Amino acid sequence: MEDFYEGRIFRPPSEAYSLIVQSTIGCSHNRCAFCTMYKEKQFRIRSTEDVIANLERARGFASSIKRIFFADGDAFIRKSEEQLKISAAVKRIFPECERVSMYASPKSVLIKTDDELKALHDAGTELLYMGLESGDENVLRRINKGATAEEIILAGQRAKQAGFAVSLTAILGLAGDEGSAAHAKATAEAVSRMKPDYFGLLSLMLEPGGPMYDEYRAGRLKPVGPATALEECRIMLENMDSEGTVFRQVVGAFRDERASCQRILDARVHRCVCFPVAFFVGMGDDPASASYESRHGIAHGACGSRPQGTFGRIQELHARVVDALLCQPVHYRVARP
User: Fold this and answer.
1) Residue 186 CA: distances (Å) to CA of 33, 133, 232, 299
2) What are phi and psi of 227, to 5 degrees?
3) CA distance 23 to 120
4) Among 30, 53, 102, 206, which residue's CB has the most CB atoms within a 10 Å radius?
């Protein structure tokens, strides 16, 4: 049997207390320009026997396991018959388990028939995490997403039709300043058509080793500031009509509180202008500087890794301020009255 887990662990925030079992190593696409999460891994699908052996081994770690998350990126790419065997093992080994979830790429959904999708859901996989990133075709091509907006929308629709809950994410700032409004409106349209159960917004984080970071250093990409990121969020909300979708960013549950949520965003945009505009990695530096990382102590590694050094502490503090502005608990549902 292989080691219990290979490499760094990545999981959605809502899986913090889940048993994480590696079904695949790395990501089947692994070419998105903004992502460095799985760059050190060669993608492969672990044997069904090893995955089940890990589940059996994990049984001894806790008296009760309520949730299981199958990693790595795009664990849903596994053949349906293999996943059905794993789902049966979950029910046998963890009869108390209430939810099984995993990442799913558009391709991993689209290559399966409707009958396969329904069988996988009925066997116990309940929640799929999908990355839309943007509804703008130009942005998707630029970031090398590997799927069109129509393909991503169709994948989400088919997953929901099969019974899966879908948790969808997009990325603020992905189009830079010039494409910000178009990115926001196209993303809102895509979400409205997909109608995911959950929708969340991430902030673009440029990491050394990623193609978008190289674009930034070469001066071809200008990261947006926090005010622009909040404005993107507001434009998405104004143009989104997705009944039943829980929007986790300004986080919350609403049907007709759209106006009050927009007032919250307006207030945050106003407050955000008072803070430094440099948001992600720049802090006013020359991106072409050869000693950029060494002078600022930027941590190499996974998205979300803690910045190091004096600049890193400033960056981390600034990120906390922005997070506080973006993520105060105000849950709502994104449907127009």
Assistant:
1) 19, 11, 11, 33
2) -65, -40
3) 15
4) 102
The pLDDT score that the predictor gives to residue 260 is 53
CB 288 within 8 A of CB 217: yes
Return the structure tokens found at 119: 């069988």
Region at 313 (left for phi over 0; alpha for psi -120 to 50; beta for the rest): alpha
Cis peptide bond prior to 50, omega within 30° of 0: no
315, two tokens? 């960056």
Q: Which of 156-160, 220-224, 299-303, 329-333 is predicted least confidently? A: 299-303
Cβ contacts of 91 within 8 Å, gap of 6 or more: 97, 124
Phi-psi region of 328 (alpha: psi -120 to 50; beta: other; left: phi over 0): beta
Lowest mean pLDDT among 33-37, 194-198, 252-256: 252-256
**Mean pLDDT, residues 312-324:** 43
For 18-74, the three-class secondary structure string (H helix, E strand, C coil) is CEEEECEECCCCCCCCCCCCCCCCCCEECCHHHHHHHHHHHCCCCCCCCEEEEECCC
Q: Show the 3-state SS of 135-196.
A: CCHHHHHHCCCCCCHHHHHHHHHHHHHCCCEEEEEEEECCCCCCCHHHHHHHHHHHHHHHCC
d(CA 241, CA 196): 11
Which of 229, 196, 228 has the alpha carbon at shortest distance from 334? 196
- Residue (of 211, 220, 224, 209) closest to 287 by Cα position: 220
